[in-house]
Amino acid sequence: MKHIKIIIIVSVSLLLIVFAIAFDPVIRQEAVEGSKEILPYPSTFTLEASIYYMNEDALLEPEQKEIVVQNNKLIEAIVAALKERPTSPDCYQTISDDVRVLSAKIVRQKLYLNLNKAFVKSPYWAEEYRLLTLYSLINSITQFDTIDRVQLRIEGVDINKYTGDGGLYGDFTYNGSVTYQKPDSPEKVVLNFLNLISVNRFDMAYKMIENSDAISKSKFVSEMTIYEQAKKSYEISQPFSRRDGELINVYVQYQFYDTIRNITYDGGTEIWRLRENSEGNYSILWPREVE
């Protein structure tokens, strides 16, 4: 009987020793010389990313790049890519070579990013390009599902201290209003035109008019400034188009939603006339029409 108990105790002890060796990484590494613990994902990998550079029209244009992420430092890889020269001769980098990431932490899809002062001391941080410099970084970062907003600090100080007018507040998200997208339909051409008006890029909007001799640039800016102020509180419903001979009519309806009274107000319907050339590009005819 005693022999049976001894055998059972020894057997259990051996099983415990085997179990400990099998599941304790320290013992396992000592047992197998040169072995390393295997992580569930690689610390260095390559991925395709859209890096946003400034084009000749002072808009952000994405360029597809293959970036190498080392030690799982995604933000550092994005910043490094932004400091590289774009392949397109019509685009320019917006971040200087001495910009460095001091810290980067993602919590619940919010990135807490801290950069050194080189970000706001570079020639790209000039007043007319400040917004593009900022959003070349933000748009490049927020393209990933793991990040949808960014809190940006410069050596621990909120970025608003360096914006000049103090008009930027809170977390930053992707900004499509400063991003160039080649319109591939009449509806998108009109939406792009109206978007340029909403951000006061009247110079760009004026270039989209076919018969610009019908209105001077100064008069166009004056008229569209009043237009933008009148439509500031309205939203555009989904536009649609109809062909009228060689022309294309794009119908745009404005609406205003009163959140307090839960009422939607009609802001009027506009007809924007476009012409398509032999290359498939669209231009806006002037003057515009309102129903």
Helix-strand blueprint:
Elements: H1 2-23, H2 25-31, E1 45-55, E2 60-69, H3 74-82, E3 91-92, E4 101-107, E5 110-115, H4 118-121, H5 130-141, E6 149-154, E7 157-158, H6 186-198, H7 202-207, H8 217-230, E8 235-236, E9 240-244, E10 247-258, E11 263-276, E12 282-284, E13 289-290
Parallel strand pairs: 5-6
Antiparallel strand pairs: 1-2, 1-3, 4-5, 6-7, 8-10, 9-10, 10-11, 11-12, 11-13
Helix pairs in contact: 1-2, 3-5
Order of helices and strands: HHEEHEEEHHEEHHHEEEEEE
Indicate the overall shape.
Answer: globular
Mean pLDDT over all positions: 81
Task: Give the tally of structural domains.
Answer: 2
Q: Could you list the spans in which at least 5 consecutive residues all have pLDDT below 50?
A: 21-40
Largest sheet: 6 strands, antiparallel
For this structure, the quaternary state is: single chain
Q: What is the end-to-end distance?
A: 104 Å
Q: What is the radius of gyration?
A: 29 Å
Strand percent estimate = 25-35%
User: DSSP helix count?
Assistant: 8
SS-derived structural category: alpha+beta
Can you give the helix content as a percent range?
25-40%
Strand tally, please?
A: 13
